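Recap from last week: sequence in, structure out.
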Amino acid sequence: MDHKGILAALVGELTKLPGIGRKTAQRLAFHILKQPDEDATRLADAIRAVKERLGLCRQCRNIAEGDLCGICQDPKRDQTRVVVVEEVPTLHAIEATGGYKGLYHVLAGALSPLDGVGPADIKAQDLVDRVAGSAVEEVIVATSPTIEGEATAIYLSRLIAPLGIRISRIALGVPVGMDLEYADEVTLLKSLDGRREIA
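Predicted structure tokens:
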């Protein structure tokens, strides 16, 4: 295999990453080529370690290095609340706010019959089994404000309601700093529905 073939293979692999087009992949490939051997080796080792040593937490399905993730192992977390998210990046976005100190549950998707994603695929029953008979008092559904996310929220509420556990939905609406005239109708409607008292 000549150098063009090797470089083309690297570019091809990089274009498989989300948000990386062909030109960006080429720039990255040339950057890697120019880097000292140690830097390229560290990058390769970091990728290998992610694939070999990371998995999913058996309790919440967050990324974990062992059986349980750091959040599930933390005894200081509020054991009475669970935020349900579609994907791990959403969990990390909520964690980055520093304002939530409870537990999480990652569904790994949302209901989408047209795409062949049903209740078994998002493992909703795992959530029900987890909260039934536990210290959990509230399940906060933080699915996306899409048709699939809304359908998932409704489905989860029907599953959890018989357990006597409070189920709530995150507030949806106008982002901070946005002019109302630019908000779409659905966002404005959700903002009005989710209104709360000022004082």
